[in-house]
Amino acid sequence: MHASPAGAARAMPLLWRPCAPGGAPSATATTSSPPPGRGSAPVPLGVDAVVDAAIALADERGLSGVSMRAVGERLGCTAMALYTHVPTKAVLVDLMHDAAHAELPRTHPGATWRERVESWADATWAFYLRHPWVLQVSPARPLLGPHQYAQLDGLLAAVEGSGLPPKDLRRLASALFQLVGGVAQTVAETRQAESATGVAEDAWWYERSALLEQVATDFDTRFPTVTRLAGEGAFTLDDESVPYLEQEATETFRTGLALLLDGVAARVARAAS
Length: 273
Fold this sequence. Notes:
273 residues; Tetracycline Repressor, domain 2; 2% strand
């Protein structure tokens, strides 16, 4: 899913609407009437209320479970009442995506640049796994919202102390986003696979492994490096209670981050000498 095709003129003013004293975007609230047959009190409506309800739905059902009707039902109003505040569902997704990032810390603790980057990576990794639907919004055309800029600003502040020149700092930030987001997406999709396919994780692997042995009897000679590393334990994981790909992705996140930061440190050291 890409940024709203409805046009920047509709989405950007809402993304950058003025902030209230507490830091959250402010919005003029109206009041919705409860649906017929319900005795609940009227619900205050505004952009923030609509976005918060939509985020809660996405966390529960995924992005496909978010519709204007479903959001209206959660708020006790009709879908049409929402259009006073958010013009389209596409714009709503833009607002959801940026608003969700508001829960990420703006600064990251650590005595060194590396510790600060590791703190950023841990917080971002946990954020993506709490809100896996965020990863369905393509970074190819970023929304340019304030909370995503805050996330980028916090990362750039963390890596700035590494000693890299400005252009390399930006490229390192991009690499870190790709690493954390890409691997987190694998975990998110692994967790969703059983409900989406109706096939349990173990059953999926056992069936295909058995068939692979039948259809690729010359596997060892065709793929000697894979075979050799497998014999040396390269593909063996420690915790069989965790789905294979989820555990592999988690280890990839940790190891990949360490290798990337080791490379940065080595490059800075070479430049200094």
